[in-house]
Fold this protein.
Amino acid sequence: MNVLIKLFVTAIALYFYLTHFMENITDRQYAIPHKLYLFIFVFIIQFMVNFVSNIIAKKDDKISINEVFSTSINNALLSVIAFDAYNDLVYNKYYVGLTAQQQILVLILLIIGFMASIKILELLITSN
């Protein structure tokens, strides 16, 4: 349940970020700055979400900053990879009939899907 809440909060934050601060996400001229901004934004959001989640869960008396940091970096990298996949699909005219809001939702679903699939694999591999 904790994973679903983290993904839901991330999706909402991404929606607000993409609709209000990132313009022309389909323009290939700004692809590198968009990737950089997306990486920074997702890293900050994931760091905050993971940190608050660890405080609420109170697994131990200590919070593993290394674990929170590495998870945040991994999710930020996954968001850049998902954004690159989205840009490739846009470049190949895959989303011609979609509006800008629908394209943003597709990008958010790609990012959340990448994060969820890696988290599921991680849980399957490390489960006892």
